[in-house]
Amino acid sequence: MPTQAFSEIARVDARDKVLGRAQYGADVKKPGMLYAMLVPATIAKGKVSALDVAPAMETPGVVQVLGIGDFPALRAEISYRGQPIALVVAETVEAAIEGAEAVTAVYETAPYIPLMTSPGAQRVDAEGFNAGDVDRAFQNAATIVEGIFETPTQHHNAMELFGTVAEWTDGRLTVYEGCQNLDAVKAALMKAFELSPDQIAVKSEQVGGGFGQKSPPKIQTFLVAHAARLIRRPVKLVTPRGQLFHIANYRPRSVHSIRLAANAEGRLQAIIYDVVQENIPDGGFRSTGYHEDIARLYAIENFRATAGDIHIDRQMPRHTRGTHPFPAGFALESVIDEMAYKLGKDPVELRLEHEAKNDIIAGQPLSPHFLNDCLREGASRFGWSRRLPEPGSMRLADGTLVGLGVACGIFGASMSASEATLRVRADGTTRMISSGHEMGQGILTAIANVIIQGLDINPDRLEVLLGDTTLGPQLATVGERGTASCVPTAAKAVEALRARFAELAGANPPAGNLHQQLARLKRPYIEVKVSELAPGQDASALEA
Questions:
Q1: C-alpha dihedral over 518, 521, 527, 530, to 10 degrees?
Q2: Using one digit for the tens of pLDDT, what is the confidence trace for 344-367?
Q3: Range in 40-49, 100-109, 281-290 the model is least confident about
Q4: Could you give the residue ranges of the DSSP H alpha helices within 41-81?
Q5: Buried-most residue among 113, 322, 344, 421 (CB within 10 A)?
Q6: Do domains 31-111 and 136-152+251-386 have the same CATH topology?
Q7: Cβ-Cβ contacts under 8 Å for 508 (sequence gap 6 or more)
Q8: Side-chain-side CA neighbours of residue 3 (13 Å)
């Protein structure tokens, strides 16, 4: 990583965004392109016994209606309300909408469970975790606090809707859509259509917000690609925002029961933690994930965690903006505050006294995390010393009640293997090909900043390319790992290029910036390709 602080440089993609030149998945236009619209199921569970598409086919502009039987991905069995049962393809988006509204279905309904509290909802236990001697710690505890904390179902829609454009050319499929994990989408399409890697390209130049929702392959990607192959014309689908609440992933409701024990000296001794969440059978969002981070937050050696899922009839929940640690952290931080009050301790000091040094799950020392430094700095900036501990004791001059509180959060820092190709040309241009996805978080600017800091190039003629499977592997930009994985690789590429140029130029390099030096050395360009592994990875990560 660069040792120099990031400078105040402009966002490299800001001008294109302001001028409307930034290309998102739904911005792609192809000659002869058709427009599609989904037909959602209007029941929560059951079966489609009949599908009437005749009125839709009579709608002016409608080209084709593809339903159950036309797609492997469309099923007669309905698992949740809003599940797609048909796709209408038309010459205009208006005709596609009108046609979709004309499709009707006859259903065989079945009993369903919409909520964790619905009749028939049952808990299915998941794998737990146990460290230390929890029972003994609670038996010897001087103070115990407990509570039940709930996080409701939460939906999120990024500014950019789900937009997909698919085109087949000579047996080769190209898909354009907003995505956080192009390689996963490509792999899924290869399997679905029995294609080789060189027969599929997936492109996502810009993503208008993802937050985990655009990470897994989407059902609409398969439907649009299949429709384009059947009709032999490019097809675009932009899913209406209202439908996203039914088919897109969401944060599930979760209920956290937690007990915290302290000894007579006010030392936190043990936690008993149970969480249950709504899920679907075989859902990928594990309830065991809630305790994995909070168990590492403080030095509490005795920790028992249990978890379970309550199966409901809805679409699958998944990672949503922040993931498991945030609902779990809300529960933990709440009981720690309650414990501080019971013990008569300052809540900041109580946390400072329990700085975690070891990972009780992995049985290894924790890497430096600087949590206590953050707590001290935050207390200083917010004027914590003026806080009065008694509830309702602090008021403004006009009598308004105020309060000061503290809470900590934790989110695991993950990284991925990454590779990059950096080329500087004598004509004044520079190109970096990297892995990852630009979702508005500034990954393009971060990479550009590393290059501009490390090389004397023309900054206004630097091009950073990513989000395209034809360029190279595209790492999943999730879990805060995108920039953290790409920037070290960019820094490594800069150092490698500097070293290669030093070998080329020798002891007396010509004058000018890097472009001018290459021109004077009569070299059209200089290029390096580098790769970087994340901590703990071996070469197999790059092979994958």
A1: -100
A2: 999 999 999 999 999 999 999 998
A3: 281-290
A4: 54-57
A5: 113
A6: no
A7: none
A8: 1
Question: What does the block give as tokens for 109?
Answer: 């309904």
CA of 334: how far to CAs of 149, 192, 345, 372, 413, in Å? 9, 47, 15, 18, 24
Q: Which residues pair with 531 in a beta bridge?
A: 419
Phi, psi of 53 (to 5 degrees): -105, -5
Sheet arrangement for strand 46-52:
77-78, 46-52, 104-109
Rg (CA), the chain: 28
The per-residue pLDDT for range 451-496, each reduced to its tens digit, is 999 999 999 999 999 999 999 989 899 888 899 999 999 999 999 9
CATH architecture for the domain at 418-543 = 2-Layer Sandwich (3.30)
CATH number of 31-111: 3.90.1170.50
Contacts of 373 (CB under 8 A, 6+ apart): none
Q: Is the pLDDT of residue 3 over 60?
A: no
Angstrom CA distances, 493 to 401, 419, 499, 500, stand at 55, 9, 10, 10
* Contact criterion met (CB below 8 Å) for 150 and 331: no
**How would you classify the pairing of strands 430-433 and 462-465?**
parallel
AA identity, residue 214:
K
**Where does the pLDDT of residue 4 fall: very low under 50, low under 70, confident under 90, or very high at 90 and above?**
low
φ, ψ of residue 208 in degrees (nearest 5): -85, 55
Neighbours of 244 (CB within 10 A): 19
Local confidence band at 1 (pLDDT 50, 70, 90 cut-offs): very low
In 3D, which of 218, 291, 298 has the Cα closest to residue 254? 291
299/293 Cα distance (integer angstroms): 13
Mean pLDDT for the stretch of residues 240-260: 95
Does the pLDDT value for residue 112 go beyond 90?
yes
Q: Is 209 left (phi over 0), alpha (psi -120 to 50) or beta?
A: left
Domain ranges in the chain are 31-111, 136-152+251-386, 418-543
User: Which structure tokens are listed for 205?
Assistant: 């130049």
**Mapping DSSP to helix (H, G, I), strand (E, B) and coil, where does residue 294 land?**
helix
DSSP β-bridge partners for residue 37: 88
- Fold observed for domain 136-152+251-386: Aldehyde Oxidoreductase; domain 4 (3.30.365)
CA 453-459-462 angle, 5° bins: 105
- Asked if the model's pLDDT at residue 2 lies above 60, the reply is no
**Per residue in 153-168, pLDDT tens?**
999 888 999 999 999 9
